[in-house]
Write a structure and sequence with these properties.
4-stranded antiparallel sheet; 30% strand; Immunoglobulin-like; 3 domains; Ribosomal Protein S8, Chain: A, domain 1
Length: 468
């Protein structure tokens, strides 16, 4: 339940309305495109690195990419449904290596069909081969093979059909077929088999691939503290060493035992990492585990605009928070220790209590603004967008002289003014809040930029003055 009550000083932790009702004495005389989530999972189908939009998943157009539809009762489909509650698209890095493609040998033995991608989903593919022939009225008749029709089925549903009079090798979204000659095809029904998912790839390889891609938030539901540490180190390296401002969501859940889910405190204390732990129940009795919650939050965080806070955001169809914290004191403690908390609103809706990341070690240089989702998204976008501007337009192309630096400064000023018009920043003054000067090396440029991100209204301190 959201917080509220009275206030003496403006020091409340939880979002909510704090209202004093007091008597009045009678007179005696607070821009780049977002929405891309990186996911590490094993769909059992698809390229090692797959990109897919929400529309492709919702309409079924992306089935050939990941082997899962929106309505499927599978781990992959369930997790993607959660991600796409907020995300516009995903980049899926298959977590395994050494996968084997399913295949089938046509009866002749010189014609083979091989699944387009490795993994167990290829075992759901089957083929129907039909020989299209003509025969003479001779005795015996002379049979001539005119063409071959190959139908490709996935889970019994026709997905592709090809009739050819001369092709001995062809492909579709599902299979690659190769024959020594057209006569190698033998009529019949054939099922592909032998597809395997291989074994777990190293996170070093996984993160090396994701480092090359453009995404906003990493959904990382690992229960191992070692794996979580690796993900945190990966995000820190991208943010601090590469200037690529991304974030990740991890869980405090460590797995399950005979009594249900198990948890252990996890405190990365970093603005690039969100931590969750609760899980929730939907109105149809479906349980979203404290592990799968990572996918929902990663989608929400990636999809949030730079002028939007997730504080108070309703979780679609959620009716119950499964694990603590639930009491006022426990929620305050969780927020103060850098946890993103779900809570129940008085009208029954389950909401994101407070859009905060795991950063808690405030300093003079890094204050509370670095703990808040919306301001951090603004700062991250500024860093990413100006880096992109420099890399694409100025790097190696513009002279590092007064004129070149003046052009660069003018572009940054325009960008900041656009952010201010959007309501992402405030009080930006192009005369005093930016400097672009030459660095120590002849090829170096130094930019000083002073920014005040706009936050959302999240705490109400009100005094109701009553006459009489």
């Amino acid at each position: 339940m959201p917080a509220g009550g009275t206030w003496q000083s403006q020091n409340k932790v939880r979002p909510g309305a704090y209202i004093n009702v007091v008597g009045v004495p009678k007179p005696l005389g607070s821009i780049g495109d977002r929405g891309v989530v990186a996911i590490v999972m094993e769909p059992g189908w698809g390229e090692q690195l797959t990109r897919m939009s929400a529309n492709e998943f919702l309409t079924g157009a992306g089935l050939y990419k990941i082997g899962a539809n929106y309505t499927d009762d599978s781990d992959v489909a369930r997790q993607l449904r959660l991600v796409f509650q907020g995300a516009a698209s995903v980049i899926i890095r298959r977590s395994n290596t050494g996968q084997v493609k399913a295949s089938a040998t046509i009866a002749s033995g010189t014609c083979t069909a091989t699944a387009k991608y490795a993994g167990t989903f290829g075992n759901n593919i089957s083929l129907k081969v039909t020989l299209n022939t003509t025969s003479t009225e001779d005795d015996p008749p002379v049979v001539t093979l005119n063409s071959v029709t190959v139908e490709t089925y996935v889970n019994g549903v026709l997905k592709a059909k090809l009739t050819s009079a001369d092709k001995t090798a062809f492909s579709n979204d599902w299979v690659d077929i190769s024959a020594s000659a057209l006569s190698s095809f033998v009529a019949g029904d054939y099922s592909l088999s032998g597809g395997t998912n291989g074994s777990a790839d190293s996170l070093t390889n996984v993160f090396a691939d994701l480092e090359q891609e453009n995404w906003n938030t990493l959904a990382f539901p690992a229960t191992s503290s070692t794996d979580k540490d690796a993900a945190v180190a990966f995000v820190k390296s991208l943010r601090d060493d590469c200037g690529i401002k991304v974030q990740a969501v991890v869980t405090e859940c460590t797995g399950t035992d005979a009594n249900g889910y198990t948890f252990a405190s996890y405190a990365p204390d970093y603005e690039g990492i969100y931590v969750c732990k609760q899980g929730y129940r939907l109105s149809d009795a479906t349980v979203v585990s404290p592990i799968d919650e990572v996918y929902m939050l990663a989608g929400m965080i990636a999809g949030a605009t730079i002028t939007e806070s997730l504080t108070g955001t309703v979780i679609p169809n959620a009716i119950e928070v499964l694990h603590g914290p639930k009491t006022n004191a426990d929620i305050i403690d969780a927020i103060n220790t850098g946890k993103l908390v779900l809570s129940k609103r008085r009208d029954g809706a389950i909401v994101i209590e407070y859009d905060v990341n795991s950063f808690t070690s405030l300093t003079a240089k890094k204050g509370k603004v670095f703990t808040k989702g919306r301001p951090v998204r603004v700062m991250d976008n500024i860093a990413n967008d100006i880096k992109g501007m420099f890399d694409k337009t100025y790097l190696g192309k513009v002279s590092n002289d007064e004129d070149g630096r003046g052009i660069f400064k003018a572009n940054i000023i325009k960008y900041m003014n656009d952010l201010q018009k959007m309501g992402a920043v405030q009080n930006f003054d192009s005369e005093t809040d930016i400097e672009v000067i030459a660095g120590d090396d002849t090829d170096a440029v130094v930019v000083g930029l002073w920014v005040q991100p706009v936050d959302s209204m999240e705490k109400l301190y009100m005094t109701v003055n009553v006459w009489g």
